[in-house]
Amino acid sequence: TSNCWGYGEDDGPFFWHKGYPIAQGNRQSPINIVTSETVYDSSLSPLIVSYEHCTSISISNNGCSVAVEYADTEQGPVIEGGPLSDAYRLKQFHFHWGHKDYHGSEHTVDGKTYASELHLVHWNTSKYQTFREAAAASDGLAVLGVFLEAGEEHQGLLKITDALNMVKFKGRTADLKEFNPKCLLPKNLKYWTYPGSLTTPPLHESVIWIVFEEPIEVAKKQMEKFRMLLFSQEEEDEKFMENNFRPPQPLKGRQVCASYN
Ligand SMILES: NS(=O)(=O)c1ccc(C(=O)N2CCN(Cc3ccccc3)C2)cc1
Ligand SMILES: [Zn+2]
Fold first, then answer.
1. Do the interacting molecules here have an ipTM over 0.85?
2. Ligand 1 in reach of 19 Cβ (< 6 A)
3. How far is CA 202 from CA 17, 83, 149, in A?
């Protein structure tokens, strides 16, 4: 899909509102999470992550990130509980990252930026027939956000970072079977949750965000492998894929709930 939007000086997040007016809507993502203003919500039940049956299909460079896709089957990996009233099935996960380790995440915490942010994208299969339909509905998607910071090598992520050289160019896809993303979640599943949007066009306000407080550690050399990916196709001028993050958007009166006190 040749997008007419990107992350450059002339097609980046500050221009997206021209093609997608919702960019200036009332529940846009990401946001800066001000921890002193989050509200502990004792009614939030524990998040239930059922990733046992994990049939990953492939890893692909879609020109704005690198994504691992999952089969759309009944017994696929699902999440429920927490702020969710229905079961949401995992469709794909992808990452956002910076030119250097000091920035790259989309959400920020008291202004702190992380090297990268992993998004596990799920859709409400109780209420909608397809991902595309759910992606346009106010309670259609639930995305888990995991912060990545530079530190120890992440064993679980090695299978992903070692596959990146197979999808260097935009439009490339490679097999990636049986990858279970449970290993990418932090030990502590304390989270913040708030109503938001897709952070890329079409920016639909259809996401219940669940952002884990605890980052996972990945090695600097693993982060560097993301930065050798390209936004561009094989024949085009080489444009390294980096800084593919949208900056924090206005909260517009929304409340961020904490799953813990
Ligand atoms: N960064 S993020 O987690 O917020 C995120 C970004 C993109 C997607 C995603 O898979 N798509 C966005 C919608 N698009 C398909 C589509 C649907 C309706 C209309 C047009 C196009 C694919 C999901 C989550
Ligand atoms: Zn994302």
1. yes
2. no
3. 10, 24, 28
